[in-house]
Amino acid sequence: MPFRKPPLESAARRPETVRMPVLGIETSCDETACAVYDATRGLLAHRLHSQVDLHARYGGVVPELASRDHVARIAPLVRETLAASGIGFGDLDGIAYTAGPGLIGALMVGAAVAAGIASAHGLPLIPVHHMEGHLLAPMLETPAPQFPFTALLVSGGHTMLIAVEGLGRYELLGESLDDAVGEAFDKTAKLLGLPYPGGPHLARLAERGQPDVFRFPRPMTDRPGLDFSFSGLKTAVLVALPRAEGEQARADLARGFEEAVTDTLVIKCGRALVQTGHRTLIVAGGVGANLRLRAKLRALAADKGFTAFFPRAEFCTDNAAMIACAGSARLIEGRKPDGPLFTTPRWPLADLRAPGVAA
Amino acid sequence: MLARFEIAGRSHTQQMLPMVHGLMAEASLSFAQLDGFVCGIGPGSFAGVRIGVGFVKGLALSLDRPVVGISSLTMLAQAALDEGALRVIASIDARMNEIYVGAFEADASGLCRSMGPLRVMPPDQFREDAAGPWHAVGTGWGTYETTMRQGVTGDVLHVDGAALPRAQAALKLALPEFAAGRTLAADDLAPLYLRDKVALTLEEQVQLRASRN
Ligand SMILES: Nc1ncnc2c1ncn2[C@@H]1O[C@H](COP(=O)(O)OP(=O)(O)OP(=O)(O)O)[C@@H](O)[C@H]1O
């Protein structure tokens, strides 16, 4: 049942312009984040606390520790974000939270806090799909890309090519059959003895490496289709590892790996654009911060005459700005916070529909 | 006082909001009319406790109200004191062959006061040497009564191994705290986990592997 705000109250508070500030909360994995986004004024404030240091000692994200840290950090973070946005809880028009996919215990923390705020102020509660947040992250930039576009979504948990015809109209073109590309970066980095999460460390090491000393396969590029597979690449790195003695050889190996991964992504992006006929490619997700990937996609764009669009690095990785933005786009789907609290560890992106359209 | 209770198992996410909103409707109150919030902080199911704590944080933070956190063991003990017990050993089954446990007695005004730290431990390591007679309550007793009795020096008069923490008891314990100003801000409300070792660091993983070889 869609939520309707009492008309009198909102009219009293909003005499002239239509402002619909939405608070967004993100706790799906190892960042606690909060943001306020307004349909007319854009992003008003955003804050993030990364748990990277907490999990580094364990060699990866420990779900229970992630949940504990979210619950410890969230209240001051929300308070700070709201103060920075210059509005009060009473000025909000909705509370958005990441409902999935992600670590279920971590998701529940954000959902519960969101439900508390929504209950307290009689506001609609808006469950947001984390990957839709990533997909819409480029909308936080000016100028924002226009629909339709093709999206490359590359993060620690996902590798996807998606045709985006409009809000909530997503067609999965291809995805990884095994490891996500960020995961491949992280695992390779771990093999090289780099700290967790290894992606950015590996990228830094690769800068000092030669591109052709280690030559790795470009998985699944020799046949048609838009799916990916990165687990074989990890095995190839493992086999090559004994030859990577010394600092320069390690850098060469890192470079060889990065070249193989980015080439693979770029080849598939090119194919996807041919298939969709779109003139815009957007890149989202943490691996979208990778500079070599950006450079290669820009070169491809220049060559083929399409536009490559990258959100700034802090909106590539997990953040709440994208959740508040997606929540704002789906404000009409907000629900009264008196029903079951929706969270889900798995949630296929293709299950989404345009706002207000029943599945 | 209006109260609702449900054994939710893993379905707190399903039940909590309808229950709380239903209770508020029954009392004809809005959340903004409340002066403060009382929240169960565990020990118990980590995820379950966090749902309650998260929700209360959201309420208290956005309405700028004080909070009082009450442990599940204290709630159990208070209910037993209210039924005439003098001293109570409250214990909750912590799974993984451990119990959460604490010993309590009534203060002059009949409110539950803890006689020592709340702990998590294997039931066969539990010892309580203070004088009884004791009332024993909670699922820890339900699962490990025979073992736990061996750790108690005084008499154990009465065992209720099915008792569960109730919000009424929390409210009774919290009201004097509000009156005395012993409250928390939303930021400082924290679950009481007791079990703090939940993962091995890389170093510990290496040591464990070495010790196995
Ligand atoms: N410069 C970089 N080069 C390569 N990989 C990078 C770079 N920066 C970050 N990454 C990788 O991005 C991933 C983190 O991205 P993000 O925060 O979007 O994903 P996640 O939260 O792990 O997964 P998801 O969003 O799918 O749940 C990590 O695997 C990290 O190593």
From TrEMBL, chain A:
> Any idea of its EC number?
2.3.1.234
Query: Which cofactor names does the annotation list?
Result: Fe(2+)
Residue span, Gcp-like domain: 43-324
> What keywords are assigned to this protein?
Acyltransferase, Cytoplasm, Iron, Metal-binding, Transferase, tRNA processing
* UniProt KW Magnesium keyword: no
Which Pfam families does the entry mention? TsaD (PF00814)
Instruction: Please state where this protein is localized.
Output: Cytoplasm
What reaction does this enzyme carry out catalytically? L-threonylcarbamoyladenylate + adenosine(37) in tRNA = N(6)-L-threonylcarbamoyladenosine(37) in tRNA + AMP + H(+)
What is the scientific name of the source organism? Panacagrimonas perspica
Question: What is the protein's given name?
Answer: tRNA N6-adenosine threonylcarbamoyltransferase
Top EC class, one word: transferase
One GO term of the biological process aspect? tRNA threonylcarbamoyladenosine modification
> What the protein does?
Required for the formation of a threonylcarbamoyl group on adenosine at position 37 (t(6)A37) in tRNAs that read codons beginning with adenine. Is involved in the transfer of the threonylcarbamoyl moiety of threonylcarbamoyl-AMP (TC-AMP) to the N6 group of A37, together with TsaE and TsaB. TsaD likely plays a direct catalytic role in this reaction.
Q: Does the keyword Transferase apply?
A: yes
- Gene Ontology MF term list: iron ion binding; tRNA N(6)-L-threonylcarbamoyladenine synthase activity
Similarity comment: family membership: Belongs to the KAE1 / TsaD family.
**Record's superkingdom?**
Bacteria
Q: Where does substrate bind?
A: L153, V154, S155, G156, G157, D186, G199, N290
The signal sequence is none
Q: Pull one GO CC term from this UniProt entry.
A: cytoplasm
| Chain residues that bind Fe cation | H130, H134, D318
The UniProt note on the cofactor reads as follows: Binds 1 Fe(2+) ion per subunit.
